[in-house]
Design brief:
The chain is an all-beta fold and 179 residues long. The protein has no helices and 13 strands.
């Protein structure tokens, strides 16, 4: 077998797509120098992202959202609420010494104006010449807001018709809630 095998690690400066590789044979007393060029097709490194679970959410509360990547990615992670058109924040992906992973983190304050209870946080990483794009989502439910129900006090006689007045108040905003 007259084949020579050479182990070659694809360098990080290779870009996604076609890259030219030159192999040169030289310094032989018996054989003349030779050169060959080959085309190496480089693919991006497959990348995945996960989001932390979001449980037991109350209003008002700050959501702590962490996106964790399976590769040593670089760049920016984009966060969205309920659909990919509703951008809420972005963060630089950095190495976390504690978790020993590459992460992006945001804090998203939930407003007392939110009326829907079921929501989704989306994460999107656009990738680059080295790492593939990826995305993921996590669903969460906001606990119902506590309210106070009060009823007017009435003193009356037997056999009389009375009018009861009930009031429901949002305990967070102290505003009346319509029935």
């Amino acid at each position: 077998d007259n084949k020579q095998y050479v182990r070659f690690n694809i360098p990080s400066y290779f870009l996604k797509g076609d890259n030219e590789l030159t192999i040169k044979y030289s310094n032989s007393d018996y054989f003349e120098d030779n050169l060959i060029k080959a085309n190496v097709i480089a693919n991006t490194i497959p990348t995945e992202v996960t989001l932390n679970e979001i449980n037991n959410v109350n209003i008002p509360e700050d959501l702590q959202i962490t996106a964790t990547f399976n590769q040593k990615v670089n760049g920016i992670a984009y966060f969205y609420l309920d659909n990919m058109d509703n951008f809420i924040d972005m963060d630089l992906i950095e190495y976390n010494e504690t978790s020993q992973k590459y992460e992006a983190n945001i804090i998203y304050p939930l407003s007392t104006d939110i009326t829907e209870l079921n929501h989704t946080i989306y994460i999107k990483y656009n990738g680059n010449d080295q790492y593939s794009a990826c995305s993921n989502k996590v669903d969460f439910t906001i606990n119902k807001i506590k309210s106070n129900l009060t009823l007017n006090t009435i003193t009356t006689n037997v056999g009389k018709t009375i009018k009861l007045i009930a009031t429901t108040t949002n305990i967070l905003t102290n505003k009346n809630i319509k029935f």
